[in-house]
Each structure stands twice: as structure tokens, then as C-alpha cells.
Amino acid sequence: MIALPDDDEDEIYAGDYFPRRFPSETTENLSLEYLNFYQENARDKTIALVAGIYEKENSADSALIILKKVEQRGFKIKAKIYTGCMH
User: Fold this and answer.
1) pLDDT by residue (tens digit) across 28-60?
2) Is 34 helix (H, G, I), strand (E, B) or coil?
3) Per-residue confidence band for 27, with pLDDT thresholds at 50, 70 and 90
4) How would DSSP label each residue in 5-35?
5) How far apart, in whole angstroms, are the C-alpha atoms of residue 22 and residue 11?
6) Cβ–Cβ < 8 Å for 50, 30
7) CA distance 34 to 48
8) 37 phi and psi, to 5 degrees?
9) Residue 18 has what pLDDT?
10) How many CA atoms lie within 13 A of 79 on its CB side?
11) Entry pTM
12) How many CB atoms lie under 10 A from the CB of residue 24?
């Protein structure tokens, strides 16, 4: 299970999953995430390696070209992600 520590300073999400929600500043950000946060039809507890979150499709396409040099099964997902305050 992916979760923040039980004693995390954020009492609302302590012990729970907190998804990555903000655009990538660079292409060097990797994180393990539950896929169903980004793709509704994914099975529960399916974990994906997220290589970036991009606001512009051409930025996602550029990152995918680089990723596919290492992993041919890489793909992009168009998702609606709330980036406002979650509290």
C-alpha cells in the first residue's frame, strides 16, 4: 500500500494515499502511484511508474519519446487532476 506515514505532519492524509497532482518542472521526476487516480478504469491497487505530469500535450509527447527509449510499453494518459487545496 502506498501511504504517507501514520505520524505525517499533515493530519488529514497521515496514513493515507496522497497522489502526485502538480505539473512536472523537469522530466526527471519519477513516482509510484495508484493508476486508478489518473485512469478510472484501472484496477484497484494497480501501481504505475509516473514519469511526469504535463499541462501541454507536446511536452508529454517529448517526455514519452525519451521514456520509450528505455521502456517500449510506456504510454501517456490524459487525465483531469484537481490541483487546488485538498484540505
Assistant:
1) 678 899 999 999 999 999 999 998 888 899 999
2) strand
3) low
4) -TT-S-TTTBTS-----S--SSS---EEEEG
5) 21
6) yes
7) 6
8) -70, -35
9) 77
10) 23
11) 0.71
12) 18
Write the single-letter amino acid at 59: S
Contact assessment for residue 5 and residue 79, using Cβ atoms and an 8 Å cutoff: no
Dump pLDDT digits (tens) for 74-84: 999 999 887 77
- pLDDT at position 23 over 80: no
Which single residue is written with the C-alpha cell 514519452? 64
19's CB contacts (< 8 A; 6+ apart) are 33, 34, 37, 38
> What cell was used for 47?
501501481
Side chain identity, residue 74:
G
Higher pLDDT, 62 or 28: 62
Burial 26-64 (b: 16+ CB within 10 A, else e): ebeeeeebbbebbeeeeeeeeebebbbbbeeeeebeebb
